[in-house]
Amino acid sequence: MKSTVEMGAAGGAPALIDLEELLATRLLVQGNSGSGKSHLLRRLLEQSAGSVQQIVIDPEGDFVTLAERFDHVAIDAAAVQSDLQRIARRIRQHRVSAVLALDELEVEGQLRAAAAFLTGLFDADREHWYPALVVVDEAQLFAPALSGEGTDEARRLSLGAMTNLMCRGRKRGLAGIVATQRLAKLAKNVAAEASNFLMGRTFLDIDMARAADLLGMERRQAEMFRDLERGQFVGLGPALSRKPLPIRIGPVETSGRSGSPVLIPLPEPPGEAATELIFTASPDEAESERNPVPQRPRPATGDVLARLAAQRPEAACEREPEIDPAEAAAAVEEILAAMAAEPELAGRDLPLLFQDFSGRCRKRGLGRAVPPLSEFRRRFAIARAGASAETRGRPEWEAALAHAAGLSEDLQGLFLYVARLALEAAPAPGDGDLGDHYGTRSPGRLKRVLAHLEERGDLVCHVDAAGRRVLALPRLGIETAPGTAAAPEHARRALRPRPRLDQRLARQ
């Protein structure tokens, strides 16, 4: 599975985007009409297809052609307006890439449809919070900085959904990618949440100044945005580059339904017959009025939902050869143990961990044997606890697992880690190890978590006569061995860094 995608060339070298970093930090694209924004988005979608789920909000209906080349489902918003939230939840459940085409709706309908669809994505069940790129073209329409088209209520709904996507979507696995013609027209709440930027050609002073500010460039350098060619962008961000990087976007495999206008020769002038051609109906028009062409029926909501279910990843797994359940279970345990042993995965978000886990399972040919997200979190916490085979065979460990199941998901891994140490009579861990198993490096937050467990009666932290930490689990009747002795007060003072000479002189 690719973790980076190539967007084009940057000074003779490939211009790469880190997908995992993009999922955590979001992307903002700006450029005037004709600067190549849609081409950029299409390149990103094509290059990352198959590596991550993709969901496109398409006001012009240009991205539905992705369904012809890739496995995207094209959804006609005009046909299923009342069921968009339900369809969005199904999309997250089955991890199907989809394009929501809004071109058949008026602006008012586009705002309401986008709001309902984004709300459905955002409100999906926690067990379906898989990583997904959510691309919104012409974002200034759905998140206007000032009053725009549509009623106030429709704009409020759409702006609220867009703000949720960009501000709170990361924890739900949703990575917002918004493209706009003008930064000045885009709501600041939406634009400010992006950490990656791709700035294309723009001409207005206010937009050039804002683009320069976002890229950390000096105001006098802002004039460069007027000279950018079509398909040329300047990128910055943790997923792109640590300093402004000129990028020329590479070619794409698909094309939109509406291309750029080109000159074609005019027909021969009709001369005096021009008036008759305009005001007189042709035979074809008269025939069509007598026998109108029946309109193509719009797909029913049930048909769309059935297609989504048919294209879910599990359906493809049904065609794979059956694997022995015992072998599949052993392979899953082996993968979990390997991931638990990798220290660089300790601080990674759960959706990214699950994506990594799913990729490893597919490489092993497990298919339908891949456990869902909720089960993965529990089993990964057990694997990270590091219990030996002897410990796992003890009834006290089964009691610890049963008790951990009643805790919130974020506390299970920490509780099982302490339980394993207690059962193996290992010394009490330090704050660093406890923080790694909870997923934080903040001493204050870890202190609050331990206090919460003590209030519940699940854990007691005390010191012995020698001042060494001991962690006890009273509900299980076990405790760890004493840990490292705490440093005496005079030793802690000696370990503090001494102030620099200039600081001491300033105090005097």
Automatic annotation (TrEMBL):
Pfam families: DUF87. Residues 482-508 are annotated as: Disordered. Coiled coil: none annotated. InterPro entries: ATPase_Atu1862_pred, HerA-like, HerA_central, P-loop_NTPase. Residues 499-508 have a biased composition (Basic and acidic residues). Keywords: ATP-binding, Nucleotide-binding. GO terms for molecular function: ATP binding. It comes from the Bacteria. Residues 11-75 form the Helicase HerA central domain. PANTHER family: HELICASE MJ1565-RELATED (PTHR42957). This is ATP-binding protein. It comes from Propylenella binzhouense. The lineage of its organism: Bacteria, Pseudomonadati, Pseudomonadota, Alphaproteobacteria, Hyphomicrobiales.
